[in-house]
Design goal:
The chain is α+β, with helices and mostly antiparallel strands. The protein is built from 17 helices and 9 strands.
Amino acid sequence: MIPSDPITLALSIILCLFFVLFFFGWKKNAYNLPPGPRPLPIIGNLHILDMNRPYLTMHELSKKYGPVYTLQLGVEKVIVICGYEAVKDALVNHGDEFSGRPKAVLIDEVFKGHGIIFASNDNWRAMRRFTLSTLRDFGMGKEAIENKISEESDFLVQKFRSYKGEPFDNIMNINAAVCNIIVSILLSKRFDYEDPTLLKLIKMNNENNQLAGTPMAMLYNTYPSVMRWFANVSEKMIRNANEICAFIQDTFKINREQLDVNDQRNLIDSFLVKQREEKPNPKLYFTNENLTQLVVDLFDAGMDTTSTTLRWGLLLMMKYPEIQKKVQSEIDKVIGSNEPQVIHRREMPYTDAVIHEIQRFGNIIPNNVPHATTQDVNFRGYLLPKGIQVIPLLTSVLHDKNQFEKADEFYPEHFLDSGGNFVRKEAFIPFSAGKRSCAGESLAKMELYMFFTRLLQNFTFKAPPGAALDLTPRVAVVAGPMPYKMCAIPRA
């Protein structure tokens, strides 16, 4: 009942305000968040962000507020961690405390907490253990998968030759080649580059990657109840995700019918065997939902990141022909006309340095996948609450001027000593670090080396006459180069 007396009403309002201020003031003071730019009501710090490439603003803000600061997106406070030392401290030294995933409406609607990338807690641990073990069982880092990559490289070379030196866009061909490697592990299958099913899967995956990196996606996560009336980003992403999931579900239904426990052909078979073993357990992890999303996650991560890095590599070889020529000279000296093998890599320090610099400069996951604290954590003099979103900014590590002499340039000498020997850099973490680092890192490294060397062994890459080579990254979660055409000139 609302008091009718004005004085009583005023006192009631003041009392309510006192309790609100006391509660929120106590909650705020219970934690010691790092300083950051002053937020505005409702929008927080959104007005100062480059909404297309927020990582640029976040990196710049660290120069003023230090390596750990608070940013406010709408009404949500986010902890941004910048620079190699601070990011390593969080992800490695405090790995368990920073291994969570934040709650985000768009992520929850699309991924529903299943799979490996956006899963949390025990479900994530179970899926990660299974994934690492199974990828090893099916050849990750071994000769069997090396042979598959070598065979696929032949198909890609043949495809590039078919253009006879004329300009073409390489995105679908490279996507398809890299996709076939992870598909061989997941489904025991290889697609032709023109297969309509493969092209559709790649197209939907690429569209979701681009949509998830747009300002609309950020605004949708910040103001979901409002933005769902104005933006169809969620609708498009869910539609694409559902179609990809339907393909995966049809595949594992066939696998279930043909399953031989003693002859597991691929990751899906291995999962189905685990599913049978787990059935008496009331707390299930090996569910159909987890299988579907796990395969989608590995399909996405196994294709998109490696193919994007390769596309950066070919663009950079066109941009810097003198570097391309030096790589080719080393390939000719060490490999000649033979098939590249992983064992050759140790004899090719310059090529190895160039591949590492492509990954560093390409900076394809500049924001990193967002993390969250799994408990209250004392970090660098601040007390961070459980569940707060954390952005360990990868661009700030790969472009850390304390770690890389010419951080903003493409400079392979970052990974070479004065004698031309390859040098490892601790700050080289394109696959992130700690508990949530990329599960397919060793596979990706093998793919990058073998595809890159095979292509430069067979072709010299040049820009079409009069074409400008733009090194501005595309707006997307996986930040590839802008669309470009190239000419693959066969080498004698």
